[in-house]
Structure formats: C-alpha cells, structure tokens
Design a protein that fits this description.
With 266 residues, this protein is an alpha+beta fold. The chain is 32% helix and 25% strand. The protein contains six helices and eight strands, in the order E-H-E-E-H-H-E-E-H-E-E-H-H-E. Strands 1-3-2-8-5-7-6-4 form an eight-stranded antiparallel β-barrel. The chain is elongated.
Amino acid sequence: MKTTNQFLSAMLIMLLLAMPMFTFAQDEEPKRPEYITVTKSYWNKNYKGTPEEWTATEKEYKEKVTKKNEYIMGANYFMHLFTANSNEVIYVQSYPNWEAIDKAAARNAELEKEAWPDEEERKAFLKKLNSAYSIFHSDEIYATLPGAKHFEGEITDDTVMYLRQNTMAFPEDGSMEEWQTLNKKVFENVILKNEYVKSYYPSMHAWGSDRRHFNQAMHADSMCDLEKMFEKYQELIKEALTEDERKAYNKYFKSHGDYLYAPLKL
C-alpha cells in the first residue's frame, strides 16, 4: 500500500462536533455522540467455544442489553486484520455526553437482571460471555469531531475499516487560521471527492494514554478498494493544495500508525 504522512485530513476540536461512528439504526439525520469508548481486548487462547458460539452469545447480549440501553447510541466489534497483535478484538460504544458513560454501565446491570432474572442463569451467561477474552484489556475515551462522511450501504464480508492514529504536532509557526483553511480544503476536495472512502469519522483524545492522539476511521468496500483509496488521495491532494500548502499542512502531524480491522455484523 502507498501511504505517506500526508494521508487524510485532521479535524480538531475547534470545529463543530461530529455525527456518530456506529449506530443501531440509520436516521435521515443521524444524531451525534459526543464521546466514544474504545476497549481493546484479546482472545482467550483457552476459550472452549466456537466462533459461531461467541458470535451468538455477543448477539444475544447486544439484543437484550446494549440495544435497550438508552445511554448507548451505538456499538460494534472490529476484528484484527493487520495490527500489532492478531488476538486483538476492538469494541466501540458511542454516547450522547460524558455523564452517559457512567449511567450506561449502571443501566447495563439493570438490563442484565431483566434479561436473565435467575441469578445463577445470569452468572452462567456472563461467565460464558467473558470467557472468550483474556483478563487484560485497555480502555480509551475519544471526543467525536466534525467533518464526518457517513457510511451508506451494508457491511459485507469484504468490508474493511482502516484506522489511522495520528500523533499531532504543535508547530510554533502554525496558527489556528492556517490549520482551519488547509483542513477545510482537504476535507472538501479530497475526502468528500474520494469515491473509495465510504465513511470518514474523526475523533480525538479525551481520556487515555496520549493526549496528542487524533484518530481517523473510515470504511472501504474491500482491500482492493483500500489501495485505490490511497492512490486517489494522492491525486486529489495534489489538485487541492499547492506544494507549499502541502508542506504547511504536513507540519501539523508528528507521526502516525496504520491499522486494519474487519467490522463484525451482529
């Protein structure tokens, strides 16, 4: 794949807040979450069940608990394709505000009791649910940002989710005005015009390991289209920005990491 430090625009908090990254239902005008939580778990190598049993168990919990939780706007799983650890399982939930994060956890406990009134049955189900993962996991909270390009269509077996995690730079010769001008050009003339970018959802650090983190998540219809997406970006960025503007734009990025996941349909 052809990637450069130029790839895809950043959206900072000075703009309006964005739309949801994951939703249970598609509205004509999707409501926006203010925050998303990202939990990175790992497979339990001693898990006794099959992939089909794991999927069925997670689907049952989602139907009986997560989708009924009014404090959770949406949720989804993403499976490792190309990341540092092949055992990674990413779980993302979105929330309307900061307070909803705590309220959602308490509401889950209530809904679990409603779904499985018998205590022993409930404990057995949750034990089975959690047995798929190792005891270690990590959590991050991100604030959603504007400039979303919303996913349309259906998730298929070929759909891939590309995540670019940027470490932002804060150049002394930079300015808010310059950043906004360049970023607006890139978003309008590169991301929106790239037919291979099926979605674009930016978010930035709110709570976690590195306050410089700025994430850009996007879908492509297939691995082949992902390659085309990168190539198209190079064409469009040269049309949208002059060489001096591209240099000015790149100074706001220190480094980045690239990750590929398969969205899970539940």
